[in-house]
């Protein structure tokens, strides 16, 4: 892992690194004094969204000629995001007079993260690739993996956690199968896909880089093993990796080994009963029935809010004065506990309730764009990065039902994915003299 120093890109890299570390709550190692913590972390989306817009505009102003060949889609997308946010915000102000303006902006600010794609794209262009920035992402994510592993092992052995997480109430939804549920952050699973791609890729001939990516992948998998991670996310990771194997980035020997490993793994899971237990966990009568029941109710409620007002749905209303609108006016009971609903629990349904019809421009359009790029590049077997984009597309599509990339805890990864897809595609067009640059 070699992190390049470039005078032109370093300010942007430093800012993005700081933002990512804040998004990961400083890796769970500490908290700031109460007042500072409230500004830096509790209200992080508000200042990150504003900074994203300012930095993007400055980047476009100062590096217009550099960015221009790569901004065809991104320029239109950011315009759509801006108009959508303004219209939804205006509706919210009119429809919910008791909703504080800062609350409206708080919801809107997460979608402003999309503007971070501009400085990220600039870094790729100046440095001639996305690898150096992904080395930074790897460094950040590996730290998070290691801390997650340490906390997971400590909980399994002693029932307690180290670092800041020790202050949390470790009960209910935070405990699963005797393991504590700790997230690897917004980038955790994305970087596992990337590291598998680098380690498996035939194109990448640097043995040292492959070995590092393989080591990082193993550390990431250990972080999954020692914590109770999301069931859907595990399935998504397997499907994304499976796509890379099927698309054939590796030699025949690698492919045989990879397929054999998958077959052996499936055999072990089937014989151990782990698969039946896993599938049963999705049932309302299974070990995690409360989670499944709550999601089913939330899906129904938030979809009904979208159907009632497909143009704006709920809008950017907070629960301070409109709790029943945000979380449902009745909820459901599970084992005598009243379960209320949350946008982030139900993926696309929650976003439909927030964005209404504007989800088409903010989410569906860029997903279709990435799909178009991925399928176009995968037609050329010699262009390996297209396979990586296809695997990321699988990640985005599979997480749409419940763990959508637009959720508060994951949205920081969306501009990274968009910028990476755009850069790789333009690089593909340049290398293979394609007729049209989109």
What does this structure look like?
By secondary structure, this protein is an all-alpha fold. It has one domain (10-282, 348-431). 65% of the residues lie in helices and 2% in strands. It contains 19 helices and four strands. The strands form two sheets. Strands 1-2 form a two-stranded antiparallel ribbon. Strands 3-4 form a two-stranded antiparallel ribbon. β3 (332-334) and β4 form a beta hairpin. α9 packs antiparallel against α18 (385-399) and α17 (359-378) packs parallel to α19 (413-431). The radius of gyration is 22 Å and the shape is globular. It comes from Faecalibacterium prausnitzii. The chain crosses the membrane at residues 12-32, 38-58, 78-98, 110-130, 142-168, 180-199, 211-226, 232-249, 256-279, 348-368, 388-406, 412-429. This is O-antigen ligase domain-containing protein.
List the helices and strands in order: HHHHHHHHEEHHHHHHHEEHHHH
Integer-rounded radius of gyration: 22 Å
Strand content: under 5%
Flag low-confidence runs.
Answer: 166-173
Strand order of the largest sheet: 1-2
- Helical segment count: 19
Kindly report the oligomeric state of this protein: single chain
Distance between the termini: 32 Å
Largest sheet properties: 2 strands, antiparallel
Structural class by SSE content: mainly alpha
Q: What is the mean predicted local confidence, pLDDT?
A: 84
Total separate domains: 1
- The coarse overall form would be globular
Number of E-type strands:
4
Helix content: 55-70%
Transmembrane segments: 12-32, 38-58, 78-98, 110-130, 142-168, 180-199, 211-226, 232-249, 256-279, 348-368, 388-406, 412-429
Organism: Faecalibacterium prausnitzii
Protein name: O-antigen ligase domain-containing protein
Keywords: Membrane, Transmembrane, Transmembrane helix
